[in-house]
Amino acid sequence: MKLLGRYDGLALDSWVRAKFARTHYRGRVCSDAKIARYYSRFKTWRGLALWCDLTRDWLNDDALAAEARGFAGAT
Known about the structure:
55% helix, mainly alpha, globular, single chain
């Protein structure tokens, strides 16, 4: 549903649960309710906030800088 612009749902699967636990609770197991409470402040954007939060390590500073240079050179 994220591809259709529906960002309110939390896609809680085994990867998300494990990654959330490592990122925010020092690897301790968390309930789905605890994860939902953590992202509830983002309201209708909570699903997107979860995704951006848990995948932020997929990009490093070098990749972001190279991408920015690529966009700047495209004009």
